[in-house]
Design a protein that fits this description.
Elements: H1 9-38, H2 44-70, H3 74-97, H4 103-131, H5 137-166, H6 170-173, H7 175-187
Length: 196
């Protein structure tokens, strides 16, 4: 039986950061429509619009943002993207507590969270190439994709469960520990490829 080659400590840190980031985003994005329904009493059309705006933002932002990220250092992009996601998601319970939560605010959160997720994914994929030898990239990419699909599949139901336990806006308040905590492991990546 062939011995499985380890992908290294730097890869494990990147993969861990990616996993926490993907899970947190999936949980929070599944909770945003519930916040619209339960807190703002939005109509079915508004909830559909909230979801559609995030999807359209992803499609519109992905190509130009990917090109810009390709020519930058990847670590600062990943850290900034997670801090942006943290800030916009935490703004939901803060605005709700202050009585200032609106549907427009939720739409802006959905769009900004999606843009930051696209930036993180683009930077982490490019950073992966610097961390993993070409002969091990298939395995590394399969681990990333498995993590992504588990997050996409399990995140929204977990978000719904947490809405039941913590309340509609409480789920977004959980974002600050995991997103802000990601900057520490990412800042310890050893390989820092130069921009192309």
């Amino acid at each position: 039986m062939a011995r499985q080659v380890t992908l290294g400590r730097d890869f494990r840190r990147l993969w861990g950061a990616y996993g926490v980031s993907a899970a947190g985003s999936a949980v929070a994005m599944g909770a945003l429509p519930l916040v619209a329904l339960l807190v703002l009493h939005s109509s079915e059309f508004q909830v559909s619009l909230l979801t559609a705006l995030s999807a359209v933002a992803s499609a519109v932002i992905a190509l130009p943002l990917g090109v810009r990220i390709e020519h930058r250092y990847k670590r600062p992009v990943m850290i900034t993207a997670d801090l942006v996601r943290c800030a916009v998601l935490v703004s939901v319970p803060v605005a709700a507590a202050c009585g200032g939560l609106t549907f427009i605010h939720l739409c802006a959160v959905g769009i900004l969270q999606t843009a930051a997720a696209v930036a993180f994914d683009a930077a982490s994929g490019a950073h992966l190439k610097a961390l993993v030898l070409p002969e091990h990239r298939l395995r590394a990419n399969s681990l990333f994709e498995t993590t992504n699909w588990i997050s996409v599949s399990a995140g929204p139901p977990v978000g719904g469960f947490l809405v039941g336990v913590l309340g509609p806006t409480g789920v977004n308040g959980l974002s600050w520990p995991h997103f802000s905590g990601l900057s520490r492991p990412q800042s310890r990546f050893y390989a820092q490829p130069a921009p192309a």
